[in-house]
Structures
1.
Amino acid sequence: MTPIKFEISSQSGEARAGVLTTRRGVIETPVFMPVGTAGTVKGVRFEELEEDLDARIILGNTYHLWLRPGIDVIKNAGGLHRFISWDRALLTDSGGFQVWSLGALRKISEEGTEFRSHVDGSLRFLSPEVSMEVQAALGSDIVMVFDECAPGEASHEDTERSMNLTARWAQRSKTAFDRLQSEGADTGRRETEDLSGRQALFGIVQGAGHLDLRRTSLEQTVNIGFDGYAIGGLSVGEEKSLMFEVIEDIAPRMPKHAPRYLMGVGTPEDLVEAVARGVDMFDCVLPTRNGRTGQAFTSRGKLNIKNAKWINDQRPLDESCRCTVCRRHSRAYLRHLYIAGEMLASILLTHHNLAFFLDTMRGLRQSIRSGDFPKFRREFTERLGANGE
Ligand SMILES: [Zn+2]
């Protein structure tokens, strides 16, 4: 038995609508996964994630949870699901990207990455084996391999070296993962009728903006064999056109019957365009992070709530949004809250932004199923140019 099942129900060009069955529930794809870095989707209560927003899967960050509160605290609580009281699916990243983004503070060797903790300055060491151990202790339903990310503008030579290291780390991740599963280290184990109850492990394709290396990395990753496949190392400073070139080339070559996950991307238009190229899963901090800085994503483009032009605007953030914020509050009120430094401003903007991202995915799924995806894509893109008006 496998840890997850993935079935594609409809297709429109490369765009796919499907169902991902995990040991903690069924997830319709394409799906957007809100990011819960430190065991919380910042500013959002779990009741709202479940009831109002109906998020079926959220992310946890291995790096952050490992450093604080630490694995012992989470193990003692019975795993991350129990610790945060979330019974739906969880995906954890490997910590590789966070360590990478520390830049000068890290030292990479064949064995792994040495870095200084941003919490207390202590010297720490993260490797494929440590990452798998931490993710088993967290008990997430989907585990990511430990990879190395090359910068967007990396040369062919540097990218190749990094990609080959990623392939060796992927194999070590798989070996450590299998051992941990057989030792019963996974705190999130759950028996279901037709799934193995184990964690699922996804591989990551690297190779920066070099298509030949991306293809090699894909081959290396598929040869090891994973439950799902991700495209990593995009949206890290490269041109957007290059990002789409990579997605367009790689996504359709990824195994058809496994979920395809584009890591850390992106804006609403990025999601639609990546779905059109065959991607099934997404995560991004944009809806939550930008919510805290006063930016709302709407069906008529981005809107900055600080702007004086909303001072007496009685309209909701988005007239076509049915979220609880848009049904209740005006732009004028939200602007007032933001300017006054009230914490409710961040909470309400974050809520709306997540609702918009999740609704966009719902719309995408419906349009793929009904055969209207090309029309949805065209109209969605046209409306985004309206600057919130
Ligand atoms: Zn709304």
Note: The mean pLDDT is 96.
2.
Amino acid sequence: MNPPQSATARANAADPAVAGLERPTPAGANAPGFGSDVIAEALRSLDIPYIALTPGASYRGLHDSIVNYLGNSKPQMLLCLHEEAAIAIAQGYAKVTGKAMVTAVHSNVGLMHATMAIFNAWCDRMPVIVLGATGPVDAAKRRPWIDWIHTSRDQGALIREYTKWDDQPASPAAAREAILRGTWIANTAPQGPVYINFDAELQESKVSEPLPPIDVARYMPEVTTAAPAELVKQAAATLKGAKQVLILAGRCSRSEAAWNARVQLAEALGARVVTDLKIGASFPTEHPLYAGAPRAISPDSVEGLKNVDVILSLDWVDLAGALRSYGPSPSVKVIQVSLDHRIHNGWSMDHQALPAVDLLLSADPDLVVPELVKEIGKGNKPHAVPAPRAKSPDKEPTGFTNEHIARALAKVLGDRPVCYSGLPLSWDDSWVPFRHPLDYVGSNGGGGVGGGPGISVGVALALKGTGRLPIAICGDGDFLMGVTAVWTAVHYKIPMLFILANNRSFYNDELHQERMARARNRPVENKWIGQRMSEPEVDLAAMGRAQGAVGFGPVLKPTDLAGVLQKAIAEVDAGNVAVVDVRVEPGYTAVMTAAMTRAGS
Ligand SMILES: Cc1ncc(C[n+]2csc(CCOP(=O)(O)OP(=O)(O)O)c2C)c(N)n1
Ligand SMILES: [Mg+2]
């Protein structure tokens, strides 16, 4: 643990990204006096820059310790207007950094608001440390009414089924241990959220003397997630002997070295590669070996897919589902590289169907791929890399669609590095290229609409100062459910661009109503009822402006879009948050509509 410092010294040590904001008057507290000071000091020892929170009396002790004992730095508070945003920001931060941020939510009620975002982070396998609190566990210490309604038995039960671990420590020493254990578990692959619940009484009670210092690193030992050499050899031999390999490039880190290793592996094998917009970019989409996103391809539409005799899954999110599409023959050999089975439980079915697998490497794909490259490189005749696919004729889309947004971005961005922190449901992976693992960080994970804005703020926070432009393309429904995350970005000076694919509808569900109507021979023209957000249409740019962002639009014509985006990007470059309301027409691409309205979907 770090020795105690004065509040001013602590403030000076703040992370540069948002340092200088919300500096407290020095309190002169230099030794832990209360249980929550011990908790705060344990948080400091983790070297995590931020704690995203929505306040509440149940953790007023900890709140005071972060402000007045730590001097509001390391971690520095990021105030959020809804608990969902606090967790989503941490999810977004983890998507870029691969590391857990801290969050804090109020007793049972704050945790109830946070649940959907925790579920999103869980399904996305993103680490988040969620701190919570309860009214005094000792009933004799509770204030009338309020402490009683904010105390529940086994509060962790609310989120236990979609967190990796939770705890309710009963002493400062146990609280410190819980923070170390929780952080270790959250950051260990497969990653995920953890929850630690602090009794108000424990936080607010005096401690007579500080805990003995400990070497934090020794309590968070590295967990080996490499594959045994023998299994790597076996996998390499199967891949080498294949006529045609298909690589399903699934969950992977944002590491550039790991990205390059995947390209090397595909090239060494002449393998076709599929990626998935549910998760972050995992393969260059302009590479000639790239086959497309799953919903757009079939064995008939992509050269080589019909001959596939070995499938290599690099932690693909739904391997059994993919096998149904690409590996119909039982003779296709399946190699799975994944650690995911280690956190599957009996409540959440996000583990998907059980895939038939011939060889499992229970390991981190990012560690396995370079080993496979080494092994396959030995004496292997490298495959000729096919020529890049011919581009289909450039046909201007009709109407005003999300594809117009993609085209306008291509025009104004050129080769500028960007990070798409979210894409609308109807996005087609062919519209913008991914050339780097940070070009796209994946979806909300759990399908919980409303996560987009907060996740995007977290992504922008982690990218601040890197020169990479954070772009969130949100559906109007997603934006409206999570809209107050914009305030946090504005307040903490986190520049970013929101582009709203505003079709004035929860359109995804219009398609489902269409399907029902067709199946039941009822009027399809009623599909918009209970779905459209019109009369009045919500002025989304004004919702940005109301929170201090620079609002643009509504953009009503595709021809206006590039000019508006240029101005909005200039605002982001000047350090602002820009919100562009683009009034696209309700409708999805033919591929997306077909994928969604298939029986069983
Ligand atoms: C929390 C939550 N509520 C409801 C849904 C059901 N749902 C799935 S997609 C969708 C529509 C989202 O609207 P929008 O973001 O505007 O995207 P669009 O479909 O219009 O492109 C809804 C309501 C969900 N997935 N999550
Ligand atoms: Mg919509």
Note: The chain is about 35% helix and 15% strand.
